Amino acid sequence: MKIAITSGKGGTGKTTLSTGLFHILTKYFNYNVQLLDCDVEEPDCHIFIHGQKSASYPVSISIPRINPELCTYCGRCKDICAFHAIVMLPAVGFIEVVEDMCHGCGACSYVCRDQAVVEQNSMIGSITHYDYYAKDEFIEGRMNVGVSLQTRVIRETIDHANQKSLVLYDSPPGTSCPVVAVVSKADYVVMVTEPTPFGLYDLKLMTETVKQLGKKCGIVVNKAGLEYEPLYDYIRDQEITLLGEIPFKKEYARAYSKGEILPEKDDRLKKIYINIIKSIMNGKAV
Ligand code: SF4
Ligand code: SF4
What we know:
- The chain is of the alpha/beta class.
- It has 2 domains: 2-59 and 125-281, Rossmann fold (3-Layer(aba) Sandwich); 68-115, Alpha-Beta Plaits (2-Layer Sandwich), CATH 3.30.70.20.
- Helix content is 31%, strand content 30%.
- It contains 9 helices and 11 strands.
- The chain has helices spanning 14-28, 76-80, 107-111, 150-158, 177-183, 197-212, 229-237, 250-257, 267-281; strands at 2-7, 33-37, 52-66, 86-89, 94-97, 117-132, 136-143, 166-170, 188-193, 216-224, 241-247.
- The strands form 2 sheets. It has a 9-stranded mixed beta sheet, with helices on both faces. It has a two-stranded antiparallel ribbon with strand order 4-5.
- Strand 6 and strand 7 (136-143) form a beta hairpin.
- The radius of gyration is 22 Å and the shape is elongated.
């Protein structure tokens, strides 16, 4: 089973929940479990999960280089590039690939009849494996600074999931392509929100996305106790299962800022996390 943990915006408690669920599953349940940090632009599960590094893999793409001396400026490469990554000014003998826009699809080198395009590997990120409690695995996808191919790094990170394990995806926040790349691979989606007008607004967008993708889902309310009833009205109207509520407490915020695993903070929290897992596993939430 693959479970994506996501939220409509950053700072809602998504990573706290992902890492807490991973920790509880590892320590108290008899599953082989993997946590994949797919928030590759700003991966931060490592702040909470202190594993033993076991392997590291580069993520690279083939970026074309064009040799102006061989180029006849026929324009085939420019015409086929769906990402408008090739700038060609025949009048001044200029042709170049804009690396930030190139997706490394290889189409330009395929259509060039003059051998003017040569492909070179360019590293855009990395995937690192860590052992956790000797048996389970935390895998972090990380995109290099200045690179814009977030979805490519996410897809490669997801490819590292073990098909026999229970897999948790810590998704990027929002509803854009990187989120869809993660959520579309999940069997179940946990949406994290908070009882505020912003939380409700983002939850509505997230719910639309998840429903369009045809995924089963449930909701966890973080910072519960802020008394914003419209959020709960919406959850009831949409008939989405409320998996659990994590209360708002200063000591929890302090624990978070120190990188502590939240459900180990007290027994009440541990029970909430265990019940969230049971709700998903028992199918009550689906
Ligand atoms: S297809 Fe080859 S020859 Fe034609 S413009 Fe592109 S690089 Fe130059
Ligand atoms: S590899 Fe693909 S995306 Fe990159 S410049 Fe060539 S055609 Fe465009």
